[in-house]
Amino acid sequence: xxFSQVITLKRxxxxxxxxxxxxxxxxxxxxxxxxxxxxxxxxxxxxxxxPPGKVATWGIEGWVAAFNxxxxxxxxxxxxxxxxxxxxxxxxxxxxxAWVVTRTDTPFKGVIELMLWLGFFLPLxxxxxxxxxxxxxxxxxxxxxxVKLFGLSEAPFNVFSYWGIVWCHLAxxxxxxxxxxxxxxxxxxxxLEEAAQTAGSSKFGVLWRIxxxxxxxxxxxxxxxxxxxxxxxxxVELVLGIPAGIYVLPTKIWDFIHWEPPLYSxxxxxxxxxxxxxxxxxxxxxxLLHGKEYTTVTGRGYLVKSASLGRWRWVTCGLCFFYxxxxxxxxxxxxxxxxxxxxxxxxxxxxxxxxxxxxGAFQDPIFLRSLWNTLTLGIGAGLAGTFFYALxxxxxxxxxxAGRGLIDILCWLPWAxxxxxxxxxxxxxxxxxxxxxxxxxxxxxxxVLAIIIKEMPLGAQIIKASILQVSRELEEASSVSGASxxxxxxxxxxxxLRPTLVAVALIVFISAVRDIPTIVFLSTYKTRTLxxxxxxxxxxxxxxxxxxxxxFIVFLIFFLLALGRLLGFRRLSIES
Amino acid sequence: xxxxxxxxxxxxxxxxxxxxIGTGAAFGQAKTDGKARWExxxxxxxxxxxxxxxxxxxxxxxxxxxEGFQKAFPGIAIEYSGGRSGEQATKLKVERDGGIFSVDVFxxxxxxxxxxxxxxxxxxxxxxxxxxxxxxxxxYWRDRRLEFSxxxxxYNLVYVNQLKTPLIFNxxxxxxxEVDQLYELLDPKWKxxxxxxxxxxxxxxxxTFRWIWQVLGPEKAIDFYKKIRAQTGIVDRDQRRQxxxxxxxxxxxxxxxxxxxxxxxxxxxxxxxxxxxxxxxxTMITASFGSAMxxxxxxxxNAAKVFLNWVLTKEGQTAWSRALGHVSRRVDVPTDQLxxxxxxxxxxxxxxxxxxxxxxxxxxxxxxxxxxFGR
Lengths: 576, 375
What we know:
The complex is a heterodimer.
Chain A: H1 3-13, H2 22-45, H3 61-67, H4 72-103, H5 109-121, H6 124-135, H7 141-150, H8 162-186, H9 190-198, H10 203-214, H11 216-232, H12 235-241, H13 249-257, H14 264-289, H15 312-338, H16 356-363, H17 367-398, H18 404-412, H19 419-431, H20 435-438, H21 444-454, H22 456-469, H23 472-480, H24 485-514, H25 530-539, H26 543-566
Helix pairs in contact in A: 2-18, 2-19, 3-14, 4-5, 4-8, 4-11, 4-13, 5-8, 5-15, 6-15, 8-11, 8-12, 8-22, 8-24, 9-10, 11-14, 11-22, 13-14, 16-26, 17-18, 17-21, 17-22, 17-24, 17-25, 22-24, 23-24, 25-26
Chain B: H1 2-48, E1 50-55, H2 59-72, E2 77-82, H3 85-97, E3 105-108, H4 110-117, E4 123-124, H5 133-136, E5 147-148, E6 156-158, E7 162-163, E8 167-169, E9 194-197, H6 204-216, H7 218-231, E10 232-236, H8 239-248, E11 253-255, H9 259-267, E12 273-275, E13 284-286, E14 291-295, H10 301-311, H11 314-324, E15 351-352, H12 356-359, H13 363-373
Parallel strand pairs in B: 1-2, 1-3, 9-10, 9-11, 13-15
Antiparallel strand pairs in B: 3-14, 4-14, 5-6, 6-14, 7-13, 8-11, 8-12
Helix pairs in contact in B: 1-10, 2-11, 3-4, 6-7, 7-13
């Protein structure tokens, strides 16, 4: 054995320093302070039953009142029914699109991918208004056209229904799932699929028996995340569900929050349902993935190759464009048209068309400052958040730290609460934690922190799934060669994770620029964003101006992406 | 005769003359003192440099308040934050609990004022802060008095008084005379064609049902609630959507519309039938968002007084009225741009929906409303 081999062996067998657990422990402490402390504070305060201004008294009246509601079982049932169908349909669609775009030779894949991104950028509430204009049973343009064309006795579609709610969610939810899954699909070694085809499997058989199982962590993570998000969704349900008598759990939480005075204890009590669901999903996630290997990126490299579909490629292309046309472009064009209407959907006015909503929105004196704050928030949360999630995910997947299971659970906590309660919890936490912490109140830093906390489940779980795909042998090889952990992380892990990191950064950026509830209590006059300006317009019954701002945010995102590419950030996409 | 004049009349006239001279001097002194006090407050306000105001949401009122105030007092910046009163009150409380005092003046609804802001001890009495003669002279105010909504009559000054429109209807489906009495709404031909503004949360629907409880009395009101609920096509909380439904003919009428949203939509061209008041029971007066609170421990106390006085002047009230379509309690604010059905008639007797004791429902009323409208 040579001297260098002895040194290498000795290096590999050297005991870890006593303080090697310290970074992970510090991370756990930080996560506890950022995530668990505000949530605990909120739940503790939910047992305060005194009215405003009275001496604090404690009791369970709020919880009893919340769960004693005779309508609650129906609301919970509706919530799960809608979430189930939404997640089922979007999983199928997202897997299909991710497969088409990354693993096949379907023509115009780049355009398909871009259009699917667009589905994620579009503002949910204004898009719902677009669907109402198309599918309202009395005045919807599509319904009126079909009734006239086919001589129907009544409109065939009714957007104010269970399926209307699921329908309006499809574009956004599918696009999010697509964005989250695609990096994992790209990183899969095509050799596995080639082997299956050589053994006689059909192309769709390969998809079902090889691709989907190998990518189970990514699919499972995005499904779990999507399911939680579906349970908590309320904007579309509020607009479409109430007229149809469909109430969901988030609608009830929203009602309690907007009572006068607000009933935060009852709202928090109902959020415990989400907490139970999250804990169940964490357990299920671990149960399904435990003990299996999902490595697709190893030291011997991996083959990225599109499978040839033959004539079927035109079918897949057609299906993708049909989906994009119906689900994304049609409501988008309707929404755009609506922003030029005096009153959205009212064609019978004397002067139904106007450009004043556009001029009014951009001439608002606080528009420019709001825009600046929005960019600061989006870029800050996107970059800092992604880096933080990568550290957290690495600690969960790659370290042997005893508390990594707890870190994993903590990462899910923010999604147990709707955004407005997170905002309130953080406000209590910041203002009640001493004069040094209080300094961040009223700053953009606090808003960035709030978004990073809010998107922690998404960021951490998706990056975690990507890290699981990367074989440990790559880091071990780096370590054996003498590189430090940081050098290995920077030069090996990060480049391999880049598509996922870009996707997560993009999603966090977009979530940040569009978020309203998470920052509503934390923002001040100086830190107001475009999304809060949108809220101002909505509260003033000016949906048209709010839609203008929503579309402007879409253009802004596209502009920034284009600028990024122009400045040489060629990898500013989820292309590897 | 001369003796009577010398003994009685002359001394009396002398004393009277002295009293008049003294009063005049005192009055002149008070006016001079008042002016000096205002100048002093204004000078201090300019040193403070800005005023922080919480107010109703909407870009029109935001721009009216900020542009108007800036024009009147260019040396004092205004930081106007619009939002839902309830959320703003929550934030105010949490900030104060954390030792942060960032708000000077709060303009909002009386329900928030009395149920959330006053109970946390955040308010200063308003009258001592009123300095401008244009504001303190009662001849400029309806009924020659300032109106407060709170029981103590000092913390929540109401500056909007307008008639609440109880009903709007679709012009193609309904004639005014078919619905101009309250119980006509229970006619079977309207079954399924009525939309109700949800009476449970605070707002226009809440106020309308409180008014019905007042005018009918508990027993008849409960009966009416049950019957109108059975007649209703839908109960909704989206203030704009429900008005548009009526304009589009989806529903024939709406009970308890939001006056502010309705005014905005009418201005933008929507066509609606409007019932200003019922022939049999009339209607009520509402303050909408139009009340002011002076926050104590304010960061800019003098600027707060300047803003408060300004918003209560003719100029401030005119800006408010034009932005929100509200009827000011000031009698010198033009009302030509406002619909006549909103303007209280001189000498008219109306139930004040916004006073502290009126905004609170009795347990009996709360129970029946929860039973009928809980969701």
